[in-house]
Amino acid sequence: MLILTKVLLSLPPPGRYNVDMKMKQQLQNDLKQAMLKQDDLRKRTLRMVMASLKLAEVDHKAELDDPAILGLIQKEVKSRQESVDEAKQAGRDDLVERTQAEIEVLQEYLPQALSEDELKDLVQETIDEVGAESPADMGKVMKAIMPRIQGRADGKMVSELVQGILSAS
Fold first, then answer.
1. Quick one: pLDDT at residue 115?
2. Would you state the pLDDT for residue 70?
3. Which of 34, 51, 122, 153 makes the best surface tag, with the fewest CB within 10 Å?
């Protein structure tokens, strides 16, 4: 199981992401293509991502690596999902539709999400690796697992799983 998980984690993410190309370059190229094709939705969405990326790079005073960019895209998706919820409550179906379309564009750049069973197995495997035995060891487990799941699972859900497993043991 451990070998299978390591193999799966080393595989490139499915979708539009070109493994040979840096994520930032891929986003820039796709933005250019969207401009040429006059795809307003994709162009608008990618421009917002590039603006967030530029802002984050200025804040960190360094160019972001691919895992950080994946985290940024995941943050953008989460923000838009919150917007969808608010728009639904306000009865703004037009905003819901537009924001859902933006989410679909962004999800093309994220690796395939882990299923609940895969996530549970990965959490248990990480707990065994770091030798965690109680909820006091949660920080060690989270530190070890977060780089493995970057962009493939919600941190809050992982935290709840780790907490539940450590509490039960």
1. 84
2. 86
3. 51
Look up the domain containing 159 and give its range: 116-168
Give the per-residue pLDDT at 17: 43
Average pLDDT per 10 consecutive residues for the chain, totaling 169 residues: 45 44 90 95 95 93 87 90 92 92 92 85 90 86 85 82 84
> Which residue type does 99 have?
T
Could you tell me if 82 and 139 lie in one domain?
no
- In angstroms, the CA 125 to CA 149 distance is 13
Place of tokens 């999400």: 113
Structural element, H or E, at residue 24 = helix 23-37
The CATH number linked to 47 is: 1.10.1510.10
Query: Would you give the end-to-end CA distance of the chain in angstroms?
Result: 21
19-to-6, 26, 73 alpha-carbon distances in Å: 18, 10, 17
Q: Looking at the whole model, is its pTM more than 0.70?
A: no
Q: Which residue has the tokens 């819901």?
A: 96
Check which CATH number belongs to the domain holding 161 and give it.
1.10.10.410
Q: Do 162 and 145 contact (CB within 8 A), yes or no? A: yes
